[in-house]
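Bug report (template v2)

What were you trying to do?
Predict the complex of my protein with zinc ion.

What happened?
Run completed; filing so the output is reviewed.

Input:
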Amino acid sequence: MTGTIGSTVLGYPRIGPNRELKRALEKYWSAETDEADLRDVARKLRVDSWHALHNAGLDSVPGNTFSYYDQVLDTAVTVGAVPHRYRELGLNPLDTYFAMARGVESTPPLEMTKWFDTNYHYLVPEIGPDTAFSLSDRTAVEQFRESAELGITTRPVLVGPLTFLLLSKPDDDAPDGFRPLDRIDDLVDVYAALLAELRRAGAEWVQLDEPAFAADRTQAELDALRETYRQLGGLSERPKLLVAGYFGDLGDALKILISSPVDGVAVDLVTDPATVGALPTLTGLLDKTLVAGLVDGRNIWRTDLDKALATAAKLLGSAGELAVGTSCSLLHVPYDVEPEDIDPQVKSWLAFATQKVREVVTLGRALREGRDAVATDLAVARAAITDRATADRVRDSDVRSRVAALRPENSRRAEYPVRRDAQAAALALPPLPTTTIGSFPQTTDVRKARAQLRRGSIDEATYRRRMREEIERVIRLQEDLGLDVLVHGEPERGDMVQYFSEYLEGFASTHHGWVQSYGSRCVRPPILFGDVSRPEPMTVDWTTYAQGLTSKPVKGMLTGPVTILAWSFVRDDQPLGDTAQQVALAIRDEVRDLEAAGIRVVQVDEPALRELLPLRAARQQEYLDWAVESFRLATSGVTDGTQIHTHLCYSEFGDVIDAIVALDADVTSIEAARSRMEVLRDLSDVGYAKGIGPGVYDIHSPRVPESSEITELLRAALEAVPAERLWVNPDCGLKTRGYTEVGHALRNMLAATTRARATLS
Ligand SMILES: Nc1nc2c(c(=O)[nH]1)N[C@@H](CNc1ccc(C(=O)N[C@@H](CCC(=O)N[C@@H](CCC(=O)N[C@@H](CCC(=O)O)C(=O)O)C(=O)O)C(=O)O)cc1)CN2
Ligand code: MET
Ligand SMILES: [Zn+2]
């Protein structure tokens, strides 16, 4: 089918159905295996994916979707954007790549941040006026050849040049006002060279991903888009170009792309169904391929195939070729629902990557051969969709009446000064109170106990005993260090969202449903399929056990509604805000039960508050309103004397700074060490006047901070915040660290606090 795309997916998972890549990477990093072993595993994973996609009947199989760590990092290496500090290490290419991803003793890694509004993280390229762009790595070409040898003509996928630069940050040598996008012309030359090589290797199509245009862009950025694709489209030696925009509507960028000389455009009709109305009016589409993203690439629900076909019908005749695709890469969903032992009814509603590929193939055949050719598949899908829409277990009338009865006062607490005085009396804390963010190191023993419980090789009672031993050790360590507000350490939680989902009605869990979060790290997002409620307490036993061991206050530790939604696969049959209210009520029950059990401080974490922020400014306020409201609903059921903390991390907080104030927590702990406490001024500027715990050291690195560095940061903090409101804590939880370094780091933090207290009059 030369020339057409027919049916395709925009990308595919790469970690391996059984996390083979994770294990191979970790063995390589610990020097248990060598480069050849790692490359073997990688090749096998690629070959398996190509075969799976080809054999499933896709007309066009995406290539270059494999990565040892991250596709943005791959792009940086491809175009030669390797900062000097990594080149100078003198390592081989693979280890240079891993040094950029993970750092080495002498050199920290590139910064990592969230990929648009997903839970996937990419490495942030550093670009300056002197970055010497050149085609420096030919993996994309080699992998094209590798697939061609198997008889599969793949469609190499590259991060587009605009998105690459828009996600980059200026390097340290860049003068003020420099923007990575200033380098677009030089970068386009490298893409031109790569496209020519791919063409010579036999590539018919190349996919260039430009999701950055699903967010608001300036006129200059839109002009750069027009100019770039005018140039790339005009090259004499190139494959056909498919530009993919996803995670939202492309806005003005859509018209620009359609009037450019590229050969195809892929649009996300799941996140933005309204695009369907605009497309037929764009006449430039008549000589292009339109890949209609009809199958949700980032959620796990079975596609309503009838509805998708109705959408496609509206587009027939508006494009040169109408092809069917996923809304975005399938990187964000697990491989296969088949091996899961989820309740059969819920399972019949689900489609993971393997099932989504089949849906795309079915839709492609229906368009080409008519509905009758796939009548059975359509009937099965229709039955599942109807079953899900009418299933009793999706709706719980108690939950619905509880939500309906909510009043504004349910999400309002007393004025802060009243709470502050009541809490001061109840807690009697010293100035600059010290605490931690919740988790202590997850030791091998703790993880092993959990795995043994899952396998049934230890019983519930043995598991509880082992966790209690760990909690006791964490309490003793904190008392020994002299912390003021203690935590139980969260040993019982493999993951701060997954853990809660296992107690809540309305959620299902997977056993194998791993999704890459970054590098070798994976998460197993729970599936929120129905109305949410909390049949029984989730944390009260562990927390009261910890409180019983000490006279210091122990802080209860919960995950907030927004983060629970952000890190789950969420039902798509009602607004997210409605689901957030239900989750908030479940957390509210837990907060109140903790209070009733004598816990005087409760922290409700919302690290994903920024992540779910809509990409378009026009949609942000509505999100922030329900996000804030759900946090307040979760935390307003307590008396004035109970202190509510929240914790935020991984963010530039700028866009959500007003929302942080509106959460109305008594104490906010926030990542700050790496940005030298800048967030404190931003918060003061918008009137935040409650407790604040800026992280005084970065927990993402094994490095132990000197107490003098912490003293320095505390001094900076005290310039921005009065001592009465300042708390002292690390940047985030300690679960990825080891006990030795954590002991030293906290000791230094306490030493710095003692010195800072002495300077207060
Ligand atoms: N959901 C979520 N998203 C998030 C974060 C987060 O904490 N949670 N943090 C940020 C990302 N940071 C992350 C940091 C670390 C890991 C991470 O370490 N993940 C672990 C898995 C964590 C987990 O769920 N552990 C479980 C299951 C562990 C496991 O793999 N078990 C094996 C068996 C192991 C054995 O037999 O010893 C299996 O099930 O196959 C547990 O401890 O109980 C990994 O990749 O290895 C993930 C994300 C943003 N997004
Ligand atoms: C990603 S935020 C983590 C907060 C959690 N309480 C912890 O300490 O692990
Ligand atoms: Zn955190």
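What did the reviewer find?
The pocket of 39S (ligand 1) is lined by residues 119, 447-448, 450-451, 494-498, 517, 521-524, 567, 736 (CB under 6 Å). The mean pLDDT is 97.
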